[in-house]
Amino acid sequence: xxxxxxxxxxxxxxxxxxxxxxxxxxxxxxxxxxxxxxxxxxxxxxxxxxxxxxxxxxxxxxxxxxxxx
Length: 69
Description:
Blueprint: H1 5-30, H2 32-64
Helix pairs in contact: 1-2
Protein name: HIG1 domain-containing protein
Organism: Roseovarius nubinhibens (strain ATCC BAA-591 / DSM 15170 / ISM)
Pfam families: HIG_1_N
């Protein structure tokens, strides 16, 4: 599985979601003006990235199962 390029695309998408999540939680924890100004935008970015990651995961599973043959 580690030789599959699509696996690495899915893994990268998951890492991107994790990075956005950590950034959002960190800014939320600090509070302040930046958080008030950008919290909703960061959440929207995370939701969009998570949606893309889920689609990639589903596509990977479908292509690597009998459905993609």
